[in-house]
Design brief:
- Pfam families: NadA.
- InterPro entries: NadA, NadA_sf, Quinolinate_synth_A_type1.
- The chain is an alpha/beta fold and 384 residues long.
- It folds into three domains: 118 residues, Rossmann fold (3-Layer(aba) Sandwich), CATH 3.40.50; 120 residues, NadA-like (Rossmann fold, 3-Layer(aba) Sandwich); 93 residues, NadA-like (Rossmann fold), CATH 3.40.50.10800.
- Helices cover 42% and strands 14% of the residues.
- It is built from 17 helices and 13 strands.
- The radius of gyration is 20 Å and the shape is globular.
- The two termini are 15 Å apart.
- Bound molecules: 1,3-dihydroxyacetonephosphate (13P) and iron/sulfur cluster.
- Iron/sulfur cluster binds next to helix 6.
- The site of iron/sulfur cluster (SF4) has 13 residues, from helix 6.
């Protein structure tokens, strides 16, 4: 397969300037405006104590993403919840016995939890916490795209609405997308991929699969700059470069490891290097520093000649999750995620396919002692 066989499509998304949320405000500005103020150490301590108590009283568990506030990540871990990438968040929420899941992340993560566990109550600190990939893939336009290509297997990234997932054959996350597309390609399937164009193109190049790509992107990762990263590498020649695959091609091309948030943290821990340049949301640095104490982490550049920093390597929607609104939803039960049951029943199929595939992969993985060498550990993950 030649690179020319990657077809781009007519949808140039996201048009964030024009995107409006329910309240009618421009969504990115609206998100930054809703980020709660920084708290004093005393306020943080007292809110954390209140949240610990409320989680117990409500039989609730906190499921957090690595990009949210460090206090929320720590609370999730110390109270028996989890902090992880989006695949593990879905799995953890589904398997946990708690009747209430509090998802600290963005809306698609809350919706996925609800679709997998319709009988549970799923709360989120702020229901306006969305994602540029989700916003850039409206369900009606996506349905028209699918209708126009009925011969293709529809694979969607987790960062989409429940209605988009309802139309898909497979859902994937960044940790397993490559393996799933490899599997589908081996079966001779042609793929319709949405919405992230960078992740789609990375997977296409790695697998050689015939993929028709929706043209969405992540507001945060789209801002990493290849030219400036190249300059930074020269300043730190011994640094390993860790890149999330939502980043542009000229950034991914310089990576030592390309992977999901969990895979990047694992790489920081296990690779024999003391310096790392990290191209993903800077919320991840909290966990990276804990997982690899003594190592030095440098943020990949979002600035430079061509910069238009809308996020400066931090997701405005992830930043909306804070101790204040977390305590509030636990206290009041407000901000519950609802998914139309009909859509939920359609969407669960593509999510379960991914989870079943991931479980089968896990069973086939050799014991961790065998994974000592870096080559084996990061097989399937790597530069484009
Ligand atoms: P992960 O699944 O790698 O955690 O990615 C989720 C995400 O939104 C990255 O921007
Ligand atoms: Fe979406 Fe990007 Fe934010 Fe992840 S970091 S939730 S992909 S906007």
């Amino acid at each position: 397969m030649t690179p020319q066989s990657i077809k781009t499509v007519e949808f140039e998304k996201p048009n964030l300037a024009g995107a409006q949320n329910a309240a009618g405000a421009s969504c990115v500005a609206h998100a930054w405006a809703k980020v709660p103020p920084v708290l004093s150490p005393d306020e943080r301590q007292s809110l954390k104590a209140r949240i610990r108590r409320l989680l117990k009283e409500r039989n609730a568990v906190l499921v957090a993403h690595y990009y949210v506030d460090a206090d929320l990540q720590d609370l999730a871990e110390e109270t028996g919840g989890c902090v992880s990438d989006s695949l593990e968040m879905a799995r953890f929420g589904r398997d946990h016995e708690a009747r209430t899941l509090v998802v600290a992340g963005v809306r698609f993560m809350g919706e996925t939890a609800k679709i997998l566990s319709p009988e549970k109550t799923v709360l989120m600190p702020d229901l306006d916490a969305t994602c540029s990939l989700d916003l850039g893939c409206p369900a009606d336009e996506f349905a028209a795209f699918c209708d126009a290509h009925p011969d293709r297997t529809v694979v969607v990234y987790a960062n989409t609405s429940a209605a988009v997932k309802a139309r898909a054959d497979w859902m994937v996350t960044s940790s397993i997308g490559l393996k799933i597309v490899e599997h589908l390609h081996a079966q001779g399937k042609k793929i319709l991929w949405a919405p992230d164009k960078h992740l789609g193109s990375y997977i296409q190049k790695q697998t050689g699969a015939d993929m028709l790509l929706w043209q969405g992107s992540c507001l945060v990762h789209d801002e990493f700059k290849g030219i400036e990263l190249d300059l930074l590498r020269r300043e730190f020649p011994n640094a390993k470069i860790l890149v999330h695959p939502e980043s542009p091609e000229n950034v991914v091309a310089q990576a030592d490891v390309v992977g999901s948030t969990s895979q990047l943290i694992e790489a920081a821990q296990k690779l024999d290097a003391t310096e790392f340049i990290v191209a993903t949301d800077n919320g991840i640095l909290h966990k990276m520093r804990m997982a690899a104490p003594g190592k030095h982490f440098i943020e990949a550049p979002t600035a430079g000649n061509s910069a238009t920093c809308k996020s400066c390597a931090h997701c405005p929607w992830m930043a909306m999750n804070a101790l204040t609104n977390l305590a509030e939803v636990l206290e009041t039960g407000r901000n519950e995620i609802h998914v139309d049951p009909v859509i939920g029943r359609q969407a669960v199929t593509c999510i379960n396919r991914m989870l079943d595939f991931a479980a089968a992969q896990k069973r086939n993985v050799r014991p961790s002692a065998d994974l000592a060498n870096e080559q084996a550990l990061f097989q399937g993950i790597g530069p484009a």
